[in-house]
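Re: Re: ligand-bound prediction request (bumping)

Still looking for help on this. To restate: I need the protein modeled with NAP bound, output as structure tokens. Inputs repeated here so nobody has to scroll up.
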Amino acid sequence: MSIVVTGATGALGRLVVDALLAEVPAGEIVAVVRDKEKAAALAARGVELRIADYSAPETLTGAFRSGDRVLLISGSEVGRRVAQHAAVIDAAKAAGVAQLAYTGILGGPDADFTLADEHKATEQLILDSGLPYTFLRNGWYTENYTANLTPVLEHRAVVANAGEGRIASAGRADYAAAAAAVLTGDGHLNTAYELSGDTAWSLAEYAAVISGLTGETIAYNNVPAAAHQEILVGAGLPEAFAAILVDVDEAIERGRLAGTSGDLARLIGRPTTPLTETVRAALSALPAA
Ligand SMILES: NC(=O)c1ccc[n+]([C@@H]2O[C@H](COP(=O)([O-])OP(=O)(O)OC[C@H]3O[C@@H](n4cnc5c(N)ncnc54)[C@H](OP(=O)(O)O)[C@@H]3O)[C@@H](O)[C@H]2O)c1
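Reply:
Sorry for the wait, this slipped through. Here it is.
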């Protein structure tokens, strides 16, 4: 039996493999990837590669073996993911895996925003498959925001339509550590975890954190949904994706990403990474102006 991570060349997947390598020998870890070249560094560390594409079910035959503990990292192609995930679940079922962990979204079946739809459908497919499952219902990565620091510093503003809504984000590495914990530990089958940071913060507080760390005055501009949509499209985002982000902000305003169940800190055995720490790291990684 192996521990198998799909999406292992993605940002989260790489961190999951890092966390696994700290716990188990490389020979017990398998990375399912669609691009072998991109996975060269994983292979160099002794991780077995299996090549498969969620969109090509025939490539998934052989991706899993009986008794494997599998992490399905949700795909990144919004709108195509239910069919893609169904193909992975079918392959896992055919192989007879011992555990199928899945990275869903905070709130699970109660999440009432568009981006959650594919995650809810995937969880249902997994339940229907009868496979032993672990649902890792991930809240927001803090990096969703810090990835955008350059325009924030340029315009001296965080722009959103989330009002005073709060976000219990954590670092991507925190979520990766939780995934590694459920893949290497016992007692996680047929369980759903609501994973989020220990502390929920507002975007006004986020702007204040950036101000404090940079010495610049960074405002929080809360704009109407339609105006935010226009700004995002003006910045080059496709209409449909901009609409999804605007919808997420409305959900944030309703408190949907604010839950602090403590599941994440409990799984990783330490507090989650504070907002300020992730912002500080992202600021120091920016190219010098
Ligand atoms: N909680 C959050 O805040 C948050 C934010 C953004 C996304 N997400 C979700 O969490 C997932 C992981 O996050 P991330 O930051 O690691 O995203 P990411 O860097 O975009 O990684 C996505 C991974 O999925 C793989 N993938 C996508 N389509 C595939 C396909 N058709 N066949 C095989 N593999 C495929 C990608 O392969 P390649 O490496 O070959 O591209 C990549 O390894 C995302 O895909 C998304 O579903 C969550």
